[in-house]
Design a protein that fits this description.
Layout lengths: L7 H38 L3 E2 L2 E5 L4 E11 L2 E16 L1 H4 L4 E9 L19 H16 L24 H27 L1 H16 L7 H61 L7 H30 L7 E4 L9 E4 L9 E11 L8 E10 L2 H4 L3 E9 L5 E10 L6 E13 L2 E2 L5 E4 L1 E12 L2 E10 L3 E4 L1 H4 L4 H10 L5 E9 L4 E7 L2 H75 L12
Parallel strand pairs: 5-8
Antiparallel strand pairs: 1-3, 2-3, 3-4, 4-5, 6-7, 8-9, 9-10, 10-11, 11-12, 12-15, 13-14, 14-17, 15-16, 16-18, 18-19
Helix pairs in contact: 3-7, 4-6, 4-11, 5-6, 5-11, 6-11, 7-11, 10-11
Amino acid sequence: MAKKIFRWKAIVPVVLFLTLVAVLWIIFADRIIHSQIESIGSSTLGTELDLASFQLREADAAMDMKGLQIANPSDPKKNLIEARTVTADLVALPAAEAKVVIERLTLSGLRFGTTREHPARPAPKDSPSRKLWEQTQDWVKQNFALPKIAMQRVDTVKSLVLDPTQLSTVKAAEALAAKADSTRQALTQSLQSLQVKPVVDSATTLANRLAKTDPGKLGVTGVASAVTDVKRNIDQIEQTEKQLEDLEKDVNSSLALLNQGLKDVDEARQRDYAFAKGLLNLPLVSAPEISQAMFGQPSLDYFQKALYYAQLAQRYLPPGLRPLHRPGPKRLRMAGTTVDFPKEHEYPKFLLERGDIDFAFGADTSKGQFKAALTGLTTQPALYGKPATLTASGKIALATPLVVELKGLSDHLGDVPKDQAEAQLQGVPLPKLSVPGLPFSVSPGVGNADFSFALSGDRISGKWSIVANHAEWSADSASQASFGLVENTIWRVVSGLNQLAVNAELGGTISAPTLKVSSNLDNAIANQLRAIAGEELAKGEAKAKAAVDKIVADKVAPLQGKLDGAKGQAAQQLGLDRKQLDEAQKLLEAQLQRYTGGLPGGIKLPKL
């Protein structure tokens, strides 16, 4: 009886089942992917991401999205970015491994800062991005105590009581002292691991033993063995000296960071002086403090957002071959955490090889055209092997043409991630700024703005500046009648100025940041306030400085000693070890010369 090759009763149900799956996929695939993009995008960015429609084109290995909106995390009524259409060309092979590799992404109809029809939903409280946003807000509150312009009459200096935990100098000094101690400890451990003493002792012992031996009595074999021992010890000395040179470079690099940290401590003390004077409610007369009070908060708002996005990138684009941690899928039991471990020579889980924005604004393309390119954006940078880059330039045809230049770099290939961005805008409508502590506001109008930010390890740097030539100042009419001497003085100065130039610089580390703000209003306001402040202001400044110095003196005073001690220890120990190695090598080379100089009977020993 012939065997049946096909079992039709089993195959028919399987075919029907696969057909049903295919039909369901065709019907519901777009909806499922649409929902996932909105859910994962919102969770990752920490703000609502919406799509009007989504279509997957399996035959073309592409997907089309329309009506993309990403809400501004700091203003739920505004969109951070909006795009009319988004087209992504996919690489088919990685899709079989549940990986998304986009060969080319094209955006059109891009707009910024548009008003949303409905306020954005806040990110879930337990989402990593929401927590990160709140952490950056706390970072601003804990590290920056901006001075305030006092509104009451200058009369007597109030009492001043400071809490050491309020002062950033204390935090910076304690952190630097810990770094100095760890640097000295690391130096000691590194020197111990080099085993310099055993190498010197071994070489010295060999040299002394050979010095007491007559080469003529050893014969050719004995001399050859002795020469081999000498050369082996010399090689070991040279290797140890090379390790000492490498260690010295590392030590010098660490000492340079410690010296930079000492400057950060000094800058922290200046911020604490301003904080203490603010508690006395004295009118500000120092030029930098005027700008800190008036424009410090708007500057910090920009830097906080930049830090948030940089840290967000480092969270979801982990450096090196570190695993990526992300929340697990929702289920009845605890969701847990999904961990992706990267494997070399494989496609990343997500890769955008190139994204392009190239479109014109308005009917007249000669007046407005914008181009941008984003390359190498991936969740596993080490697998891709190249940093992500962003370049953009163009002109937007507004009432006054807006010229835009953007640059960005995200290098997460090594263990220390580096993220930086730069933007230059000419003819940009600048937002209205309120003056904290005073019933004033300024509308800069159209002007130029520059912004840059960089995060490398824990070091941060940033710059923000605006220049406007048609600024308009306004005051609250209800409060203007009750202006005192200080408010009237400031109002007389600013109300007559049409030009506004502000420059803010961020520096230091995340744990000990510094902020400097200056403007063209500084000297104009400061000179007028100096004339009215008089002796009371001088007494208040002296009191504030004395209160700060009293608290931080025992923290700051030992720092220079610690740094000098670390530097002296490094110089002394490295110099001593190098000297001992040099002396041991000279002893061995003397014996090498002695043993290879000749043998009995004029026999020369060949070089080894």
